[in-house]
Write the structure tokens for this entry.
Amino acid sequence: MKTLADLKAIREKAQQEMKLRNSNVRVKVIVGMGTSGIAMGARDVMKAFLDEVATRSLTDVVVTQTGEKGFSSMEPVVDVIEEGKPGVTYGNMTADKARKVVVEHLVNGNPVKEFIISTEK
Amino acid sequence: MQDLSLHILDIIENSARASSQLIDITIGIDEIKNVISIEINDDGTGMDQQTLENAQNPFYTSKSERQKKVGLGIPLFKQNAEWCNGMFLMTSVINEGTSLKAEFQYDHIDRMPLGNVQDTMIGSILGHSDIDFNIRLYHIHKHNEMSEFVLDTRIIKSELGDIPITWPDVIQYLNETLNEGIKNIKLEEF
């Protein structure tokens, strides 16, 4: 059973890690969680991003969510906003595609062109 | 929506969009009363009577006309509850918040499965890390014994201090905590 003592251990470890590496948020992943997004599987996409961030210990990535954005026909929709680079919007996402975006875009820095539906100018 | 947990996620999104700071969620199965009950209370901006009525109408949305013309989240949830011999009640006070309660007949043939409550909660907690969630899940079994699971992000955040709740190890912790909790009270197979 998980307890609050486990959290204390996590906090102490995280404080050490924060000292060692730059813990500023480098990439923001925003999953569209409006009604149509949810109906099309946005929750699985969100979960895939969260699981990858957790298992790969991506301390400089934050996964968050927002409401409808007007891309209803291309849901689930995900924005990836990387510091100092134009934002990218991915459409028709699935959990598998999300995992690919984590490896290729978030970790290796190469946006996955075939999933992109719009790029910030 | 394929299951109740997705409806719950949709309702939580409404609460989050209404600038809530604390969202209270209670989900319970009562096998004796033959009811699945879902309650979501927020302390957001609230709605006046007219907006509250409109929110239950499928041809209304709070979003601007150009973006989107209909809002189906609440009307579909309401329809599903009423369809299953249940009830749906939404009340709201401006600047105080909105409360929603839905009940479903537990053994109704048309009742949707409860679905993946864990993923709904983890997504909401981490997708809105600036909002607090007080979650209570309960299950009253046939022989009247009750089991429950409670998770309050205010306690977790105060324990974490300056470490964000979105930190990778914390995501893992929340996942495991919710998973264990839901299994312990046998809420995963409904």
